[in-house]
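Readers outside the structure-tokenisation community will struggle with the description of the input data as it stands. Showing the layout once, in full, would remove most of the difficulty. For illustration, here is how one protein appears when written out as sequence plus structure tokens:
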Amino acid sequence: MRFTRRVWLAGTMALAMTIGVRAQDLDVLRVSTIPIIDLTPLHVGIAKGFFADEGLEIDSKVTPGSAAGIPGMIGGAFDIVYGAPASSIQAYAQGLDIRVIAPGVKIAPGVEPASIIARKGSGLSGPALKGKSIAVNTRNGNVYLYARAWVEARGGDPDTVTYREIPFPQMQDALAQGSVDAAFLVEPFKSVAAADPKFEIIGDPFGEVQPTADAGHYMTTSAFLADHRDLVERFNRALARSVAYYNDNRGGDEVRGVVASFTRLPTDILAGIQLYPMPTKVDPEQLRLTAELMQRHGMLDAVPDLTEFVDRLALGE
């Protein structure tokens, strides 16, 4: 398939059309996002008008990850945050008011949205990582957790590795400049770096550590959910419609154009990136397994009871 500038234009025009027809009576939801493939259905739904059909305007703001988005939500800057289970579970275990309301991304056979990438010929893996550094987007998040777990799974000691906080878009440059020895990159940045002959993939942490993990989800506070449940229900309906449309059309130019518009990556690079299917519900068992892994790596004192953590909306009920 030829992937050209017209794909970027398709996504940009769709977004512009949605903004142009914005009605004054739409209810605004402030959403913390990350410029990664996981968020494609959200942006597709904005571009296609699915959220507007539910009377919603999505005011999205990019943050480095949920470790930054969650404090913003607790502080009132966001209504909804997209982020990683490790961050949300840790916040919930600390008594913060967090509730999972919708699925984001799930690891599955053939779906490996993140990899450890190093400079070609580095020989880094397991014990060879002692004294080395790995770029992660935030400490105490999913990427940090599964980087540690991967080092251990490969026979290394995760406590002998340095984990440097670098935003995903800047990780490849940091790796090229030698600021870090390896980087845990997610799509679309993973495929961009993997296509560069200077680099190579040295591990797939999710697939090696927890091959069916829930790797991302949308969350809000129970207070916001109680006061604005109708808004959250409308958000979920629009997002479910967006996920269905994305899953049915993820191989086409329209969806790739939307990806180009919010990641700002060149369309020729995006042509070779895997757009994996997105889930329709959250799997509480996988969240429990993640919590156990967090306890093992010192991110939790004990595995919390997650019964109230996942709202029924996230279960597809």
User: Anything to note?
Assistant: The first helix runs from residue 5 to 20.
